[in-house]
Amino acid sequence: MPLAEKKKYTAEEYFAKTQDTNEHTELIDGEIVALAAPNELHFDISFSVCSRLREFISKNGGSCKPFMAPFDVVLDEYNIVEPDIFVVCDADKRDGKRINGAPDLVIEVVSSNRSDDYIKKFEIYKNYGVREYWIADPQYERILVYRFEKNAPAEIYTFSQSVPVGIFDDRLELCIAELLKQG
User: Fold this and answer.
1) Which of 138, 140, 135 is nearest to 118 (CA)?
2) Contact 118, 135 (CB under 8 A)
3) Which of 9, 13, 154, 155 is the most buried (most CB within 10 A)?
4) What is the largest CA-CA distance in the chain?
């Protein structure tokens, strides 16, 4: 007896199926994946980092715009993600409802989905043209920084170190420990 095949959803089917729900989901390789709600530390990190990015962009007159989950990023017909924090510099990718194309910077704050952030999301973001990807891990108080556009090995920082933001030519540095103290 053959095994039943999983349905592979398209972006159009995904939006139709999830439009009237409050569930936090993503579409990964055509599969709808449920996401856990963030805990307080996860939220504090996301909010603090996004606020600092917004402040920097505003003060420097940049065309980039920071976002926080939940906000859809459509990478292709079978992949729709909701990064914890991301920056989009190309206004043509924004349509008011979602982002269409890869963000310039993505920061995922690790929670219960450890392998998703370290493996699945790493591959997705690298393959779809994200310029810079950070994995902020509260359990180990470290940040892995991948600068895909430079094809460089990962840089590792602790939460108490200042991390340069490559998409802004290192003119902005973020220290999660300091941001959490302020918030």
Assistant:
1) 135
2) yes
3) 9
4) 63
Token duo for residue 53: 């990015």
Contact 111, 38 (CB under 8 A): yes
H/E stretch holding 139 reads none
Residue 64 tokens read as 């980039």
Pairing of strands 99-100, 73-76: parallel
**pLDDT per residue as tens digits for the range 36-56:** 888 999 999 999 999 999 999
Q: How far apart are CA 155 and CA 119, in angstroms?
A: 16
- The residue with tokens 């003119």 is 171
* Other Cβ atoms within 10 Å of 159 Cβ, number: 19
Identity (one letter) of the amino acid at 90? D
How far is CA 4 from its chain centroid?
33
DSSP 110: -
Q: For the whole model, what pTM was predicted?
A: 0.93
DSSP state at residue 70: S
